[in-house]
Write a structure and sequence with these properties.
By secondary structure, this protein is an alpha+beta fold. The chain has 3 helices and 7 strands. It starts with a strand and ends with a strand.
Length: about 100
């Protein structure tokens, strides 16, 4: 069983192996975006960088960084990911809007 725990929202959702983090968050009513992100997000194509999340635990259970993430997150901490580019392969703890 793969569980995504959203720390700030105190919510857990069960997902299938390989689920897209952004899609599952939105599907379950988890708000990933700040005000600017709500107005300017690219819809999950990795172009805007507004769906950034902090991986608190379980980084090893996520897909490898994509080339898009390497560019967009190069000045961010190593435990930051773009939710739209991240596939979940095991349980993780996520902090939204870091």
């Amino acid at each position: 069983m793969t569980v995504i725990k959203f720390v700030q929202e105190n919510r857990e959702i069960v997902v299938a192996d390989g689920a897209n983090l952004r899609f599952k968050a939105i599907e379950n009513g988890i708000d990933l975006y700040t005000l600017v992100g709500k107005m300017m997000n690219c819809g999950g194509y990795g172009q805007c960088g507004t769906c950034v999340v902090e991986v608190v635990e379980g980084m090893e259970n996520l897909s490898p960084l994509t080339e898009v993430e390497k560019r967009k997150l190069k000045k961010k901490p190593e435990n930051y990911r773009l939710a739209c580019q991240t596939l979940v392969h095991g349980s993780v703890r996520i902090k939204t809007k870091p």
